[in-house]
Every structure is written in C-alpha cells, then in structure tokens.
Automatic annotation (TrEMBL), chain A:
<dbReference type="GO" id="GO:0005634">
    <property type="term" value="C:nucleus"/>
</dbReference>
<dbReference type="GO" id="GO:0008420">
    <property type="term" value="F:RNA polymerase II CTD heptapeptide repeat phosphatase activity"/>
</dbReference>
<dbReference type="InterPro" id="IPR007308">
    <property type="entry name" value="Rtr1/RPAP2_dom"/>
</dbReference>
<dbReference type="GO" id="GO:0005737">
    <property type="term" value="C:cytoplasm"/>
</dbReference>
<feature type="region of interest" description="Disordered">
    <location>
        <begin position="286"/>
        <end position="312"/>
    </location>
</feature>
<comment type="function">
    <text>Putative RNA polymerase II subunit B1 C-terminal domain (CTD) phosphatase involved in RNA polymerase II transcription regulation.</text>
</comment>
<keyword id="KW-0904">Protein phosphatase</keyword>
<protein>
    <recommendedName>
        <fullName>RNA polymerase II subunit B1 CTD phosphatase RPAP2 homolog</fullName>
        <ecNumber>3.1.3.16</ecNumber>
    </recommendedName>
</protein>
<feature type="region of interest" description="Disordered">
    <location>
        <begin position="1"/>
        <end position="42"/>
    </location>
</feature>
Automatic annotation (TrEMBL), chain B:
<dbReference type="InterPro" id="IPR020608">
    <property type="entry name" value="RNA_pol_subH/Rpb5_CS"/>
</dbReference>
<dbReference type="InterPro" id="IPR036710">
    <property type="entry name" value="RNA_pol_Rpb5_N_sf"/>
</dbReference>
<feature type="domain" description="RNA polymerase Rpb5 N-terminal">
    <location>
        <begin position="12"/>
        <end position="117"/>
    </location>
</feature>
<keyword id="KW-0804">Transcription</keyword>
<feature type="domain" description="RNA polymerase subunit H/Rpb5 C-terminal">
    <location>
        <begin position="161"/>
        <end position="233"/>
    </location>
</feature>
<dbReference type="Pfam" id="PF01191">
    <property type="entry name" value="RNA_pol_Rpb5_C"/>
</dbReference>
<keyword id="KW-0539">Nucleus</keyword>
<dbReference type="GO" id="GO:0005665">
    <property type="term" value="C:RNA polymerase II, core complex"/>
</dbReference>
<dbReference type="GO" id="GO:0006367">
    <property type="term" value="P:transcription initiation at RNA polymerase II promoter"/>
</dbReference>
Length: 312, 234
C-alpha cells in the first residue's frame, strides 16, 4: 500500500500468475509454454469453475422451492368451514384434506412458521382449529403438570391442540414417504381422536396396548427412514466429492524422496552438557517460554511486537 | 386506584414512544432527508398533545410521516453519467415512516399492507416501527418485495436511544459511488479487500446501508489524532 511496487523484471508476454514459492533456478527463459497448444486456464480459475459447477449441482439436487406466501396466508386463516359441529377434533373433511396436502410439501421449519403466522393473527396454532389461542400474561404459569412457559402455552387454544400439532410435527421431522401423483411426499396423518378420548377414561391398561401399536408403527417408519437416509447420505457424499460429475477421475500421487547431502548425525549435546542444561534439551533443542530473559539476544524479534508506548 | 395505575402505564409508554419517535426522526435526518428542526426536536409535551388519545394512551395509528431527500442526498445517490446513460436518475426518493399499532407479532398480512401502502404512494423506502418482532414469513415479504420498495423494520425498543450519540461510537459516513471508486483506486484495492461491516450491524441498520456500500469511519485517538478507516457493507 505504501509506494508503487515496480517489479525488477520486465513483464514477459506469456506470464503465468506468480506463486509464492521460490522458482527453481533453471526455469526463467527456458520453459515458455509451446505456442501451438491452447494455454490451459490458470489453476485457481479451474478450481473456481469446478466449485461453481458443484454448487449449481447441489442447488439443483437439495433445495426444494420454498412454500409460497399465499399458502401461508391461506392456511393461517384456516379452517374455511366453520360451524357449531366443526372443531379441531372434528374438522370438515375438505379442510382436513387441503391441510394435509399442503403440509406434505412443508419442511419442519415451514410448519413452525405456519404456527407462528397463525399466532400472529390470534388463531390457535393447530391449523384445523377454529378457536383463538390462549392469551395468558406473564412469563411462566404453574400447571398441575409443572411449570410451563407462557409463550409455549399461548401458541394453542388448549393442550389437546398442542398435542394434535405436535403429532403433525413429528411426522415432518421423521418423514416416511408415500407416492402421490408419481411424486414422493411425506406421509401425514391426523391424530386419531377416538384413541385419546378412550385413553383418558380407561387408565394404564388400555393405554399400554395403544402404545404398543404406536411403537410398532414408529419402528416401521424408522426402518424406511434408514433406507432413504443411507441413499441420501451416499448421494450427498458423492456430490461433495464431486464424483457425480466426473466419475472416474483419480489423483495421481508421486512420492519423491528428499535427497540427503550429508551423513545423518544426532543432535550435538556437548555444548549443553557444558552449560549444565542437558536436562532441558529436547531433540537437541531447548524449549523456551517466550520470557525472553535468558536468551534476549537470540530471540530479539520479541521486542518488535512491543507497542511503542511501552518501549519508550 | 385502577385509573391511577392505568394513567401511569400510559405515561410511561408515551414517553418511550416519544424517544423512539425522536430517534427515528434523527435517523431519517442523518440519512440525508429533509426534516424541519422543530419536527425532529419535538418536546414531550407537544408529542403528548399530538399523539395521545383522550385517556392518555398513545395513538400509534397517528404516528407516521414522510420525508423528501435533500439536494445533497439526491446528488450522492445519482449514479455517474455514462455515454449510454447521459442523464441518470437518482436512486433517492421519498421515505415513509409509520408506527405499527399491532400489539402482537407482525404477520404476513400486516407486512403486505405496509408494503402495499408504500408502493401505492410511490415511496422509494419505508420504515415500519413495531412493538413486537416480525414473524419469519413477514420477514420474507420484505426480501421478496425488496426490488420495488426498500422496507426496513425497527423495534420500538431498539430506538429508545440513538446509538450514534453514544461517546464510543465513532462517526460513520456513507461514501457515494464515485467516492468509493476513488478510494479503491487510490489504495489499489479490490472491494473484497476492505474490512467489512455486517448489514445487520446496528450502525449499518441505522444508516440503512445496502450491500456493497462503503462507510468511512472517523475515529479520534489521543495518540494518533483523527484517523479514518473504511468498511464494506456485506
Ligand atoms: Zn385449538
């Protein structure tokens, strides 16, 4: 930045970018690239192009287009059908189907956004619930089950809706896929309402049975997940390595021995023995801790880092 | 008893809003818009008279204003004339500022309405001051419409003090496009070689920096005197 840095050598016509490594002595002059061959792109440019291609490819494969704002707007005002017989436990079939089909294309994150969006409008976070959300004040609330954050409670109209929404969220978080119109979509089911109403009346025994079938179901889901997960991992890894693009390119490795110029000998300890410091030597080198007291002479660049104010 | 607590709550809220109102005026003025001095330095008493309801509660729906860019600002944001474009038009335009009366989080609907209002009235920029944070989808509305209208959102809470008035905050000056080119030329830099400032940095938000703009930071130091450094907004 200080002055114009004019290089000593006159720029030659066919100049390749200067590396930071020292050049071997023989090269200047002798090794101009043959003019007939088209000059290959500089290395960094090649790497940049490769990177860009990789990114393009990754984008094409990984990222699904985000859910449009209109969807959020529509779903945040759900349910469309309202009436005395309509409730979160008993939604209209049409609304339920539309909700499921929409949410099948959602990422977990987007489902969270939908809940947030419904809460902004004062609606219960569960999309098929027509009731307004709770509006407790304060920060915490004491319940029979313990202490809960008011912000969490205020997302729903009731604990039942929290459960229903969570049931959807779990299915998005650990998706199993089904085919719809030839495309794989996440399998989403609404929570079985009859199960919960009976469970609350019949204690432990009945509950254990449903839990068992629940377990079997989730095990099945896990199995499918594992399969899809491994293939997904494999492709991701392949993309990261760049294998998908250039299948069989290998890197050539040459091992070159460094030539020795003198016979090998161990570190010289005689001086250290004389100074009585042999016990401090490690591989012929004495470790210091930068205090600079003993060897101010040899370690003089230490004080160059001292700010001027201290030196004066 | 009940009434007394109510009025004291209202009084506190009004004085909070008054401070945010003053800060947002100073901010708009610092960015180069024209505002009358008595509008910026409004007293609490006058603010109370103008922007509260009869019961003393603040009336946010009334708290809105627009400002035109000053001559200097118009000049600063006019791209240099080129052969293909001999008479470039300035990028600076009227700004619209509004306090949002909504008391819960800001959703898509509220945001769309604000953006719609700005574009319908041909405002180049809009600032929405809200009591509660934006939902993530409302934030997305801003990015989607960014190419038409520059929308920014501030929380009332963030405007209670004017951070640029703090002793330890050095002076920041936004460079015009020519000044930026001259700077890069003088130091033989590529713009990526400049130190950076994030767009979400409080000062960058205060000045409304856009990506690629360079800000000059003038610090005073007891030992080095005044010295300038530059940062690129990313
Ligand atoms: Zn509900």
């Amino acid at each position: 930045m200080s002055g114009p840095s004019v290089s000593a050598q006159a720029p030659t016509g066919s100049q390749t970018p200067k590396g930071i490594l020292k050049k071997p002595k023989s090269t200047p002059g002798t090794s101009a690239p043959p003019p007939s061959e088209p000059t290959p792109l500089p290395l960094e440019q090649q790497i940049a192009i490769q990177q860009a291609k990789l990114l393009l490819q990754q984008r094409g494969e990984d990222i699904k287009p985000p859910v449009s704002l209109d969807f959020f707007e529509r779903l945040s005002q759900f349910p469309v059908t309202r009436g005395a017989s309509i409730s979160a436990a008993n939604p209209s079939t049409k609304d339920a189907r539309e909700f499921i089909e929409a949410v099948q294309g959602f990422l977990p994150r987007e489902y969270q956004d939908l809940i947030e969006e419904r809460n902004c409008l004062g609606n219960c976070g569960y999309t098929l619930c027509p009731r307004p959300r709770r509006k407790y004040t304060g920060e915490f609330k004491i319940l029979s089950s313990g202490i809960a954050k008011v912000a969490d409670l205020n997302m729903w109209c009731s604990d039942d809706c929290a459960r229903r929404a969570l049931f959807i969220k779990v299915q998005l978080d650990n998706p199993s896929y089904i085919k719809r119109d030839g495309q794989l979509v996440v399998r989403i089911e609404l929570d079985d309402e009859s199960k919960h109403s009976t469970r609350r009346q019949a204690p432990k025994n009945g509950g254990a049975k449903t839990d068992e079938s629940e377990l079997a179901k989730s095990m099945e889901r896990l199995e499918i997940d594992k399969k899809t997960q491994t293939t997904r991992d494999k492709t991701a890894l392949a993309v990261e390595r760049g294998d998908a693009r250039r299948p069989a390119q290998q890197v050539e490795v040459t091992i070159r021995e460094k030539s020795t110029t003198a016979p090998v000998k161990g570190p010289d300890q005689s001086q250290a023995v004389q100074d009585g410091e042999a016990h401090l030597m490690l591989e012929g080198h004495k470790t210091t801790f930068g205090t600079g007291k003993d060897d101010a002479g040899s370690d003089s660049d230490d004080d160059e880092y001292l700010p001027s104010a201290i030196r004066l | 008893m009940e009434e007394e607590t109510n009025s004291s709550i209202f009084a506190r809220e009004t004085s909070r809003l008054w401070r945010a109102w003053r800060t947002v005026h100073e901010m708009v003025q610092d960015r180069g818009y024209e505002l009358a001095e008595d509008e910026v330095k409004i007293s609490l008493q006058r603010f109370r008279d103008e922007y509260t309801n009869e019961d003393g509660s603040p009336n946010r729906a009334k708290m809105q204003f627009s400002a035109r860019p000053s001559e200097a600002m118009i000049k600063k944001y006019t791209p240099p004339a080129t052969a293909s474009n001999p008479n470039p038009t300035t990028e600076a335009g009227t700004i619209w500022v509004e306090f949002c009366p909504e008391q819960s989080s800001i959703g898509i609907g509220v945001m769309k309405k604000f953006v719609g209002h700005c574009s319908a009235n041909n405002f180049k920029a809009g600032i929405l001051v809200t009591a509660m944070p934006l939902s993530s989808q409302a934030r997305k509305v801003i990015t989607v419409t960014q190419q038409y209208t520059q929308i920014e959102c501030f929380l009332e809470e963030d405007l209670l003090v004017n951070i640029t008035h703090h002793d330890l905050v050095p002076k920041h000056i936004v460079l015009s496009r020519e000044e930026k080119i001259a700077l890069l030329k003088r130091y033989r830099l590529k713009e990526t070689q400049l130190p950076r400032i994030l767009q979400k940095d409080p000062i960058a938000r205060y000045l409304g920096l856009k990506r690629g703009q360079v800000v000059k930071i003038i610090r005073t130091s007891e030992t080095a005197g005044r010295y300038a450094s530059y940062r690129l907004c990313v």
